[in-house]
Amino acid sequence: MQMTSENSIEVTAFTWPTGFYSDATHAGLKEAQDDMGWLYSQVPASAAGVYTTNQFQAAPTKLTKATINRQYQLQAVIVNSGNANSCNGSQGETDALMMQSLAANKLQIDQQLVAVASTGVIGEPLPMAKIKTGISQLALSQSVGITQAVLTTDTHSKTITVKCLIDQQLVTITGFCKGSGMIHPNMATMLGFVTTDAAIDGQHLQELLSTTVDETFNQITVDGDTSTNDMVMVMANGMAGNKPLTQNSDDYPTFVQAFKRVLTHLAQEIAGDGEGASKLVEVNVTGAFNHLEAQQVAKAIVGSNLVKAMIFGADANWGRVMQAIGQTTAHVDINGVSVSINGMQLVKNSVAAIVDDHKVSASLNNKQVSIAVDLNAGVAEGTAWGCDLTYKYVQINASYRS
Amino acid sequence: MQMTSENSIEVTAFTWPTGFYSDATHAGLKEAQDDMGWLYSQVPASAAGVYTTNQFQAAPTKLTKATINRQYQLQAVIVNSGNANSCNGSQGETDALMMQSLAANKLQIDQQLVAVASTGVIGEPLPMAKIKTGISQLALSQSVGITQAVLTTDTHSKTITVKCLIDQQLVTITGFCKGSGMIHPNMATMLGFVTTDAAIDGQHLQELLSTTVDETFNQITVDGDTSTNDMVMVMANGMAGNKPLTQNSDDYPTFVQAFKRVLTHLAQEIAGDGEGASKLVEVNVTGAFNHLEAQQVAKAIVGSNLVKAMIFGADANWGRVMQAIGQTTAHVDINGVSVSINGMQLVKNSVAAIVDDHKVSASLNNKQVSIAVDLNAGVAEGTAWGCDLTYKYVQINASYRS
């Protein structure tokens, strides 16, 4: 077990929390790899979700949102890749409902306890015969197959398991996700799934998820595009046996920390595996007027095509960072900004600092790049993650369907 | 002379309006090409400007804004490329003032009638000895050299001359610009200059410029980045002899049309010459709730990296257009959107329309691509221009300084 810096929170090998089962199969939506899977909890779990803000919300995304918001409860999630079931009109809504119903029947649970998530090509009808076959093939196991079956252009699966003691009970939080950023309108989508055996009611879980997503998934950017199917959901089945967590529980801060660790890891994994990305970029902003502005500036820097291309080219061209800062509406001390790249200060009081910029440029060849900015306008901080802009990004997106 | 569709507005060969003089020279800021120039009007001209919204406004941009806003009058503009005089602190401000003063002395006019524009590398002090030499070399001529001397990574100069009859006098409007979009933080900047011999007072000119820029320069995007030095300015010296134009003048609509034609042409030229661009893209949005939303949606589509990469790859992947629309906050009939590319309808009522999409993909190999979107949410319209996202864009920006 790898100990983390936070006391009593441990990152462990992948395992499902108590009472969670899973499976994956090949339903024929993709050529060879598994393309369907499900998650199942032995007992109904508290549930929460956050959903894409794109106005063309896909049918499964709308259905899942309505399902979770009914009672903040879920017992299963059925997932497919290869087809997003998006922009398919009323046929899409019928098909999403049918997928939910087929999974519920097979699991012998209430349809209202099943979430549906789809990712893949937009605007092609969901092949329901294949979906039906796929669901009939799914069983209940400890398999990790679903973490592969949800992938599209991702280069690898993205998972994490964290354990902590809550109310003297061992609590497990396991998350996985897919997406090379919110950047795939076709093999669409960023999807995140978190399971835990902690006891916590649905409303509290929803608050925690919404807050934590703002600090993690919403602070990554690959190209600024938001899919019609983006969604992060969490299920907490209470089987760890702790007293239900509230904001007043002694161990609530530990749980929050563990939960945030899971989402941070998954968000970083997505940023670092952005389409065509060769480097993970982290931007830390300090000295901001408030936290929101710190987050805004961090995301503006990490999202600038010019900054991203400069990192790809290993060129410590700090004017691009200044320009990205200046484009925001955040409070900035126009004559007091500092910028460091990989720990070396390039800008002091908004003008060039004396530094060996060849050394800084050389350090941009690292697989991980950090940019630190002090706005000198307050004491708030914020962080965002992204990746570089490469030839491969253009190639992937220029020839996606061919 | 090429007649345009609007009666009495003609696009002609390049010529300066009556009373305008210009010159260009090599001051040594760039290796071989001309890198300085000026514009001069025989008499003080009404003047107006619009300036970058980037918080780190460069010293010459700030100085020019203050100069113009004093009385909406100018008699000359001094311009250099190769150095943006941006992020240089108080030294930058001193140098911009000195550049203004040197030009005024040489021209024997009031310093307060001289605008200054710089474009080039950020964060390096302006080499004042070279600037001084450059100004000493400038003369008054009918040369078009300044339209070349302002260029940085542009592949060609961008100019237009339009003539029309105003109050029975022949009025000339001549514009030129530089910039491969608002995308160069280093060899920075989009700069636009418009000269006319029409008579119109400064306040009216400022109103006209601000309104027209919103419809033209502000509707182009190459990569969404805004330089510290962006600026469009106009000088109107009244030497055509018309009665000063106001909104009540009989021929005001003709002048507005001619003026807009100049700015539209320059904006399109910049979009089509975007860094690495191989195609000019025009997006027309109809059926919008209001004009602002139409403009917002048009710009969101033309600015989406995914749409841009799809056009580069000649892949009629309409899900990307839908996704870009859905990301905006504009009113949209979620089930009633139409999308056409190069005149062929791909989406009807927000789902796939029957079309030969290979034919549409093939049409994306044209040098000009048009996308038409009907939001079905009103009667307003809007247009934006941009370019495709290419390997060359990444290459240029990854290795800019090397």
Tell me the β content of chain A: 25-35%
CATH topology of the largest domain in chain A: L-amino peptidase D-ALA esterase/amidase
Most extensive contact: A-B, 62 and 62 residues
How many structurally independent domains of chain A? 2
Task: Tell me roughly what share of residues is in helical segments of chain A.
Answer: 25-40%
Low confidence ranges of chain A: 1-6, 182-188
Task: Describe what you observe in this structure.
Chains A, B: Belongs to the ArgJ family. The structure is a homodimer of 402-residue chains. With 402 residues, chain A is an alpha+beta fold. Chain A has two domains: 2-272, L-amino peptidase D-ALA esterase/amidase, CATH 3.60.70.12; 280-398, Ubiquitin-like (UB roll). Chain A is built from eleven helices and 16 strands. The first copy, chain A, has helices spanning 59-71, 89-107, 128-137, 146-149, 202-215, 252-272, 291-303, 305-312, 319-326, 357-363, 391-398, and strands at 2-3, 9-12, 20-25, 36-51, 73-83, 114-121, 158-166, 169-178, 191-196, 231-236, 280-288, 338-341, 344-348, 351-352, 368-374, 380-387. In chain A, the strands form two sheets. In chain A, strands 1, 2, 3, 4, 5, 6, 7, 8, 9 and 10 form a ten-stranded mixed beta sheet that branches. A six-stranded mixed beta sheet of chain A has the order 14-13-12-15-11-16, sandwiched between helices. In chain A, strand 7 (158-166) and strand 8 form a beta hairpin. In chain A, helix 2 runs parallel beside helix 3 and helix 5 (202-215) packs across helix 6. In chain A, 59% of the residues are buried. The model of chain A is unreliable at 1-6 and 182-188 (pLDDT under 50). At the A-B interface, helix 8, helix 9, strand 14 and helix 11 of A face helix 8, helix 9, strand 14 and helix 11 of B.
